[in-house]
Amino acid sequence: QAVFQSDIGALMEQVGTGKESLSFMKRRIRRLAAQWASAARRLDDKLRNHWREQKRILVHVGFLTEESGDVFSPKVLKGGPLGEMVQWADILTALHVLGHNLKISFSLKELHGFLGVPPGRGSCPLTGPLPFDLIYTDYHGLQQMKQLMGLSLRKHKCHIRVIDTFGTEPAYNHEEYATLHGYRTNWGYWNLHGQQYMTMFPHTPDNSFMGFVAEELNETERLNIQKNKVKNMAVVYGKETNMWKLQGKEKFLAILHRHMEIHGTVYYEAQRPPEVPAFVKNHGLLPQQELQQLLRKAKLFIGFGFPYEGPAPLEAIANGCIFLQPKFNPPHSSLNHEFFRGKPTSREVSSQHPYAEQYIGRPHVITIDFNNSEEFDATIREIMRINVEPFLPYEYTCEGMLERLHAYIQNQDFCSPEAPFPPVNSSQTWLGSAPSPFNLLPNSRILTWASNASSFSSWPPLTALRVVASLESESCVKACQTAGLICEPALYRFINIRETFSALDFQCEGVESEKNHLFPAFSAEHAECSLQQDPLLFSCAGSSAKYRRLCPCRDFRNGQVALCKDCL
Ligand code: UDP
């Protein structure tokens, strides 16, 4: 049984020393230790009587190994990206606090040792059983494990979880399909189960949402923040000079400067002056703790469009700032923006931080067109006028992350073969002689599972299922969202049957079964109903003007979109 542990001594030792990235993570782990400990106590109370199996877990952080070139560590103190390190530090702490048996590797040598593969022999199949129940790694680590284990990786890959900031959609993950249909990238095509990829924000639900944490405030700190806010103080998001080179920024910077004092935390070298306008009070790159202090005073945290989707805006909002960011019109994606090019996702990024825009919104987050000077000016005035409370979504608190990770670890299973569906033995079918396992919810176009849900084992449970048909050109991500629900790929197999079409009143001329990441779907033009032939291609993402897609949606917990109401 796994027992919650609040002492971080053993964890700190395992992380080791010798690199700036490791020191950054250790500073973070130490700083947040008390917060994790009190979250663990609360979750322990909440989960009373729950048996939690202790798992043997390996964490192999591929991008920080020397063998992958580790470009990150040398830049930790020079304005390089820190989001990934924030997330890995939090994943390590959460796994440790949940009480699992944890091994951590930051090099190929350690990986060899933990897997019991002798070093220096090239690819070497792992003949015995895998000594771990779960392996958390990243794309670099996955590649290294393939080189190490050769074909035997295939046998063990159901135990792997890939930490993948921006996500990987099923069409890009499926090797044969990606190759045939132009979805091949440098990253995808590992033929994993989509939910084995774990993202930094809840992007497409085809992947699992891992996340990270931001600091929570106690009552005294909340009160102090309210007292000490400086209403004309703005902090600019970003620590690299690049974003100051953005075209057109002079106009909105001039407006901002007219109303507010502008602070920055841009890295610069002692002998070279910082490349920011003279009226910006640049503090240089700050230690995380000092950045928090700066955010506690500031009223406004403003993004210029880059970096995308990092942790800093959540930290700012948690410290009572309003986050102002540009809307992207048209949205940025792998089709039109260098940064996303070659990433295994078709996601359209509607602003600098879509999570802040869509999940938090006003009054904490304001997303506008920065080219519209009048709107920009009016917004700055409004921000100086209004008061907002510090806010942190539950899923980004330590308790929220522990709860989510606990639920994944105990329930997600990509190793056991799934029972065939629909059931082969006719005595096991849904309501005996009933033509369909679905019920139509009153006054809606939404189906629920009518038959005995508990006779089909699944997680999330079938009780959470709500079937919706998308509009033409609409993805299941969107269709579920519009219905106030979230798409749940794990439930696709239950709706990939001809009975779903009739329950939704689609009259099929014919029913075929094909490999297409948009299926199951209905094509109005030909009155054709298409089922999905390959479960690896079940995908919430993706749309086409030709199809109305069948979407397995589910409910979710308030502030914890990854979990359905009956998921704990
Ligand atoms: N950060 C910091 N000092 C600074 C600016 C940022 O320690 O002067 C931290 C910040 O607290 C956040 C992390 O850098 O947790 C990553 O922030 P960002 O959103 O910029 O994401 P990135 O682009 O680095 O992945």
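^ uridine-5'-diphosphate complex. The chain is about 30% helix and 15% strand. The chain has a mean pLDDT of 93.
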